[in-house]
């Protein structure tokens, strides 16, 4: 039997928590609830979850602070929920390591779709042998990547992004195409997801992230992986 995914939902609004929990349980996920940021952090540390959903504005500890702490300790997929829709807030959340950012109010089927997309990204790619390119060893089966023999600490999103770029060097990927290939959705997507993930990935794979040699920006279009000559 397939393993039931465990989802942690953290929000201080009881109505929101109840609605999200009901929708996820209808999809046969196991749901646990946290009512504030400290409770969320304690529960996320005490048990293994497949996805953590965090409201940004919570008592005792903001969701962004929980996200920052969890990302420094774990690669668990994180979805942030927020009533604040400014570009600065979204970019901040994504740069802290969130895999997705959902603005309130939202439709419950949309949130469920995003949870499923995150879970698909976290599953082993299982589509070919180890790829060796530009000093990197990328193993889709093992879901690991190494640089000069040292394993890189990548989230599932970052690994999928690296794999898609590196398997087709020199190809220019639009942000929309990367949303489809990596995030597994198009109309639900936001190009800032791609930009923030690229920034985090560069920090881990580039010798000098400020002057990237591997993941190049194609201005006005998207990104390409440069494997060198």
Walk me through what this model shows:
Helices cover 40% and strands 21% of the residues. The protein has 229 residues and is of the alpha/beta class. It has a 5-stranded parallel sheet, sandwiched between helices. The chain has a 4-stranded antiparallel sheet with strand order 6-7-8-9, covered by helices on one side. A 3-stranded antiparallel sheet has the order 10-12-11. The protein is globular and about 55 Å long. A hairpin with a 2-residue loop joins β8 (144-147) and β9 (150-151). The mean pLDDT is 89. α2 packs parallel to α3 (63-73) and α4 runs parallel beside α8. It folds into 2 domains: 6-122, Rossmann fold (3-Layer(aba) Sandwich); 155-225, Orthogonal Bundle (Arc Repressor Mutant, subunit A), CATH 1.10.10. The protein has 8 helices and 12 strands.
Throw out a few tags for this protein.
about 230 residues, globular, single chain, Arc Repressor Mutant, subunit A, alpha/beta, 8 helices, Rossmann fold, 5-stranded parallel β-sheet, 4-stranded antiparallel β-sheet
